Known about the structure:
Residues 254-551 form the Mannosylglycerate hydrolase MGH1-like glycoside hydrolase domain. By secondary structure, this protein is an alpha+beta fold.
Amino acid sequence: MKPLRWLLGAALIPAAVLAADGTPLKGDIYIRGAFNGWGLDNVMAWRGNGIYQADILVNPGYHAFKVGSRDWGAEWVIDPAASVAVEPGKPYRMDTHPGPEDYLFVKQTSTWRFTVDVSDPARPVLRVARVEGPAPVSGADPHAGHTAVSMDFSTWDGKRETARFSADDPAAPLRTYTQSTTMQLRDPGPQHVRYRESASLPRVRSGNLAFDGLFALAGAEMLQDSVHEIRDGNYNGNAPIPCECFETGEKWHYVWTRDLSYAADLGLAMLDPRRVRNSLEFKLSGWRPGVTRAPHVAGGSDGLQVVQDTGSGGSWPVSTDRVTWAYAAEKVLLTLPPAERAAFARTALTALSNTIDNDRLAAFDKATGLYTGEESFLDWRDQTYAAWIPADLASMASAKALSTNVGHYKALTLAAQLAREQGDMSRAGRYESWARELKQSINRRLWLNDAGMYSSLTAGHFDGAPMHKFDWLGQALAIDTGVAGAARARSIVASYPHGPMGAPVIWPQQQGMPVYHNRAIWPFVTAYGLRAAARTGNVSVADAAYATLMRGAALNLSNMENLEWLSGQPLLLDEQHPSLIGPVISSRRQLWSVGAYLGMVIEDIFGVHLAANGIEIKPFITARLRRDAFGESSLATLDNLRIRGKALTVRLHLPRAEQGNGYYRVALIALDGQPARAAIAWQELKDGSTIDVEFGPLVAGEQAIRRVNANPYEEDRAVFAPREPQIARVERTPAGKPVLHIADGGNTDARYNVYRDGKLVAAAIASAAWTGDRTGATGCYAVEAVYADTNNYSHHGIPRCIGAAIEVPVTDARVSSNVPRATPSQRFPQPHIQDWGSFGDRFAVDAIRIGQTGQYAVQVRYHNSANQVNLGISGGVKWLALKDASGRVVAGGVVQLPHARIEKADTPTVYSTPIAATLTPGSYRLELSDFYNMSYLRSNSGFSAAGGVEGPSNRFDIYGVRLLRVR
């Protein structure tokens, strides 16, 4: 990030001339925060006398915000070392360096005035104060003159909330609905919404106006998200980018790979495959002009591949879930007409092959057979990883996540299928083999018998153990893709915890974190859980999912991004703990939530599933759904479902409503009045075809569900994990056994498990010290805490390795580089090679002496300040090679050097991901050369920060190298 001087110009403007010369700043400044989606809606107006001002209507909550320029080139916070909760009216001197967000606590929807005084441009001052005014008027009954039906819902605290629905003309072919709610909405605005059915989308007639209306709402929001251009403050200077695409939501105006892909897979690809295809192609990119391809980079010369979006540590390969692109691509390929399909299939195979082959180099761990990388979609490190991980993103990069590995499995299976179709049998065989081996590794390495689920997350390097951490998306995707066999699928669905409002996206919850991924329901994840429940015949879990999705859309007047999981609230306002309020941000008409609702109705209720040669009819109608959604109606109709240019009608002939639980098996399917199989080929369907479904008697199905509950305002150990403990220090007994001194992390009444090299070696330790059971010169230890009464586990603490390390600083005479060492400064006092890594830069260390045979971890000690730890495309990604005295490469591969935290004073150094090397005594040479990161792609040439408009950025500061003996 550039400092304030960039925004003001080459010279700071004296305060004395501000009033006479007008606006002092070269560019606009903005208030950007959770209340406006971190967008550019609130530019600060110049008021003279050094004052910039913006009045913003803010809803209740604890809102993160910053003052910044359009492209984040300038960023002002109160304290770059820590967040500050602002007090109304109090002046705060702002720092002109990037830093953590500041916060504003608002109890009631009201207008707040943000004032920045730049009379002294080097020391801007912020004030935030409430603007007094009349309370909003509720207005007249929006249903006046029309008959309204209600949906009533119990709240977590014993009250009731109601959603009401009416139609201007219930008999009209295309209805216009009004929907209202008694629940306090998250964002300012009326307590009702109006929307109209579209002739281009399917319609539902079920005898229940509310059920029909909620489907129409999802369709209307899909059309709102269908745009002709997209924009984002970080791209193209926030100028519009032409694209017949899907934007991500009301507060997210760009196309993001994983959001689009899951939304398309859940429902959008069936309804608008061409727009999904356009959006998918927007997320492909080749090399930008002038990029020199490094020798080890795989794939074709154009480099066409899937784009990993900006994010943790500087994007790929810290995050590798760009492969989720395959979920959407597979659905589009099932839906496009043959000629369009053939063209897209060729593009998809090229992009997937380049993506797969480079991921294999940068993110595949041969020792475990798993891919590394951040959990898919759970991309806010503090929310779902150990507290120490944001300061050591290399350890997150080297961990393995269930959801991400299942995404790689999907990419491999789709690429193999496309290669086989296109006659490339060699490539098809290779990808089929990799997919088969990956499936085996997931089942061998991540399944936890005691939990009846997969571990969603392993610890990183020097540990690697699968942890008792679980996420609903990863579990559901393992079932949906067939990675989980039938028995394991049933176990997962029965074992994953559900609160009174539905399933949280992670389990257990993390202490000290606000609601976002932590402590939250995300409708699209619930929809994948519904798929898993239907696949396994689990009635209880399916009913919970149906209720979650309908309640969320009904009471919020929109398909929201997320909700607090125990209360179902769009904003849990906790005045006693304002820093824990959330969800921190939640957007209306969030694309994957819209796709989730549409898919729930079309696929799960009406049972229309895309298949290789047509469609399959597999409705999952439970007794509770029959009673609650359809009442006394005997017929539910889905009309105008257009697939491959043919308009279809599906009619469910509903059985008599019954008490009890279970689901109705399909007894008869008819196509245009003639008996048909569940699988209907494309050639059997005509424009205007009608599919009738009749049901047999109620069957029990699976009923098991794990229920949990707690007060949403308390960090109850029933639903929360302990905080991770740490190894404070390691000593040795006279016999050479290690003694670990454990710092409990602030837990009460927890027990501790000890791991050595990723294997459990001691369980349920109560004391603060543990003595190892063997002597030895090597071993990496880590500890976790467990609540014995709830069996909730913490993350693992930082691993401590007791093996000897060879450290070579850049001041060592054996180090050579074309980039000279930098002059130490107060902030960076240690000797280092600054800004190393442009293509052609050289770095080597000669004559590294190894005295003992063993397994070594080879790492670079570095600092990467190109961007913050949660942003950007400029994570360091290089190729490290270790050569013996004869020049033979004995170990090599990609090392990652993610963005690292920037401290106000002495900035600490960190270590890269390691390269494993089995070494014998002798002399070795280490060489570092180029690979690539996402800044090398053409699509990022308009990115505003490092790696964008000024050219690729794959640079960092080198402080030295380390060879650590781990075995």
